[in-house]
Amino acid sequence: MGAHQHPDLRHAYATVRARSLEIAAPLSAEDCCAQSMPDASPIKWHLAHTTWFFETFILEAHEAGFAPFHPAFRVLFNSYYNGIGAKHPRPQRGLLTRPALDEVRAYRHDVDRRIARLLAGGASPALAALLELGLQHEQQHQELMLTDLKHLLSRNPLYPAYEASQAPGGADAPPLDWIGFEGGLAEIGHEGGGFCFDNELPRHRSYLAPFALASRLATNGDYLEFIEAGGYRDPALWLAEGWDQVCAGALAHPLYWVADGEGGWREFTLHGLQALDLRRPVTHVSLYEADAYARWRGARLPTEAEWEFAARRAALDLDQDRLHPQVAAGEGLVQMFGACWQWTASSYAPYPGYAPAPGAIGEYNGKFMVNQYVLRGSSCATPRGHARASYRNFFPAAARWQFTGIRLAR
């Protein structure tokens, strides 16, 4: 098939690429180079890796007379693609003081210029699909940039703010209600047109017994009741690995809660250290904490099929503040999107009939389908237009640095 003009795709490319630079704009070169833990990456690395994706998977295959911007970048900014070759160790990304931030920006500019030149001649359907995958990949990294940066800033005793101003929190959260669903045979997975990742396919049938979901996410106030009732001292509530972490002192409250010295709590946010707002969703909790809280409430976590079945009947409500989840508002099933990623009880596994794409690009999702749990929805940090009911996020049960929250089921 021949090449076709894609003006919308060229506009999307420019918009998404500019957004990554906007996220980094308020930061110093020192902010962009540091790495706070092995699971997080420096901002500079995110800026370079997302560019590496376009250079490696698109320009190398489709640009006449291709030559890399810098031969060493193929190794330095490869994340986990074994089919591409060697990788710089993930825990050592913060040691890459060279290339400097300015050179990474020059790398982005060079690749963007070459992509624009490539697209000026049109794009085949296969090339357009690969380019869209690269943009969706970069949007994933835009969320990671904010969550990784938050973890980094939280390790600074000055508790610096990424953005000093904070949007109003709104009125009180509505009372928690239970929204019932009859269940039955449900179609699960991506449907219709539009982009999806391969782990959202194939669409398949799943039987659901009747169930109910909480109308909103658990709030800081809800979770504080769990803490004050001794939730972290009761082994009957915890999965074994979670209780081991409690006993080791690794779990005692959500990740960014800070005792104020007077028996109360503050919370570190991208707006800086704030008084704990009891009305907002509790966030930055592990699967272990979410599961223990659900048991304490006499409930459970939803399966991912239950969550998707319900989400298809909910509004795609999105927060106004893109840096911290807002107070719930409205009636019925709210906060399914745009506040916190919601832990499910489902292990991350392939759907029946799943097959990864051939080649290195097939490493994107499939090889991670072990020892992780599915989260659904989206968070305040998720780029607009990136959320959908079939989206499957996934993290290890102990992960807390993402905007992870709790929706109860029964």
Feature tags:
alpha+beta, Four Helix Bundle (Hemerythrin (Met), subunit A), paralog of FGE (formylglycine-generating enzyme), 2 domains, 3-stranded antiparallel β-sheet, 10 helices, 11 strands, 32% helix, globular
Topology:
Elements: H1 7-24, H2 29-33, H3 43-62, H4 73-76, H5 101-120, H6 125-154, E1 178-181, E2 184-188, E3 204-208, E4 211-214, H7 220-228, H8 240-247, E5 257-259, E6 265-269, E7 272-275, H9 287-296, H10 304-311, E8 341-347, E9 373-377, E10 393-395, E11 404-405
Parallel strand pairs: 8-11
Antiparallel strand pairs: 1-4, 2-3, 5-6, 6-7, 8-9, 9-10
Verbal overview:
- The structure is a single chain.
- Helix 1 (7-24) packs parallel to helix 6, helix 3 packs parallel to helix 5 (101-120) and helix 3 (43-62) runs antiparallel to helix 6.
- The protein has helices at 7-24, 29-33, 43-62, 73-76, 101-120, 125-154, 220-228, 240-247, 287-296, 304-311, and strands at 178-181, 184-188, 204-208, 211-214, 257-259, 265-269, 272-275, 341-347, 373-377, 393-395, 404-405.
- By secondary structure, it is α+β, with helices and mostly antiparallel strands.
- The mean pLDDT is 95.
- It is built from ten helices and eleven strands.
- The termini are far apart.
- The strands form four sheets. A four-stranded mixed beta sheet has the order 10-9-8-11. The protein has a three-stranded antiparallel beta sheet with strand order 5-6-7, with no helix packed on it. Strands 1-4 form a two-stranded antiparallel ribbon.
- The protein is 32% helix and 11% strand.
- The chain has two domains: 7-154, Four Helix Bundle (Hemerythrin (Met), subunit A) (Up-down Bundle); 178-405, paralog of FGE (formylglycine-generating enzyme) (Alpha-Beta Complex), CATH 3.90.1580.
- It is globular and about 65 Å long.
